[in-house]
Design goal:
By secondary structure, the protein is α/β, with parallel strands linked by helices. It is built from seven helices and six strands, in the order βααβαβαβααββα. It binds 3-methylbut-3-enyl trihydrogen diphosphate (IPE) (2 copies) and magnesium ion.
């Protein structure tokens, strides 16, 4: 890979599991299962490359509107994921954080993610953030509510509320902004993901469906990122 700096924070919208299943004449749940396999490789590679943070979109606040069988399959897969992957993730020094409304999840899933967070909280390797029952607007509304409550209690003055204070109340507090946002399957939209954190992110929309997104495709996205010129509103001479 080239000599330029890798992104510190990569975010991925893992899209296309349904289309992958359809293409292979399989049930949608098998598409999601295949998606988990792809994820394993991408997490490992992110660790090996020394990327600081990887944030993945696993389930949006809008995904509850899918049919019951698919939602159940996804929730089942989630549970399975944490029991089958946690040993390896922990051994690889990965620190897991869940972004989203945990209260809105079924109890078993909530317990499994809390256990995974607790078990890996002191790990100093890749910061793996998994967005589950996550919505960017809900995240911002929640942050506003927390700040308003603090103001009412007299812990903060309204004029002290600034970008930093707001960022501290987001699920991503303490993480760098997203440098590279990848969405697979050719769709070119954010679908309510990391609205605040992507202010100056670079975007990449590979056509490949998520289950087919392999390390080679990941390297291509990273390479393309490393050739981008980032300006942050300034002027590059
Ligand atoms: C993304 O794949 C995974 C989740 C939303 C959980 P999709 O299921 O959205 O796949 P497509 O978009 O139908 O192909
Ligand atoms: C976004 O994908 C959510 C996840 C990948 C988890 P969707 O497939 O749900 O988004 P839309 O509906 O195509 O915008
Ligand atoms: Mg989709």
């Amino acid at each position: 890979m080239s000599e330029r700096a890798l992104p510190r924070h990569v975010a991925i919208i893992m899209d296309g599991n349904g289309r992958w299943a359809k293409k292979h004449k399989l049930q949608v749940a098998l598409g999601h299962r295949k998606g988990v396999e792809a994820l394993r490789g991408i997490i490992r590679e992110s660790s090996d490359l020394g990327i600081e943070a990887l944030t993945i979109y696993a389930f949006s606040t809008e995904n509850w509107s899918r049919d019951k069988a698919e939602v159940e399959a996804l929730m089942g897969l989630l549970l399975e994921y944490f029991s089958s992957e946690i040993d390896e993730l922990d051994q690889n020094n990965v620190c897991i954080r869940i972004l989203g409304d945990k209260e809105g999840l079924p109890q078993k899933q909530r317990e499994a993610i809390l256990r995974a967070e607790e078990r890996t909280e002191k790990n100093t390797g890749l910061k793996l953030n998994i967005a589950i029952n996550y919505g960017g607007r809900a995240e911002l509304a929640r942050a506003a509510r927390v700040l308003a409550e603090k103001a009412v209690r007299g812990e903060i003055r309204p004029e002290e509320i600034n970008e930093q204070r707001l960022a501290q109340e987001l699920y991503t507090q303490g993480l760098p902004d997203v440098d590279l946002m990848i969405r697979t399957s050719g769709e070119m939209r954010l679908s309510n993901f990391l609205l605040y954190q992507c202010a100056y992110a670079e975007f990449d929309f590979p056509a490949v469906l998520w289950p087919d997104f392999d390390v080679k495709a990941y390297h291509e996205a990273l390479e393309a990122y490393m050739h981008r010129e980032r300006r942050f509103g300034g002027r590059v001479s």
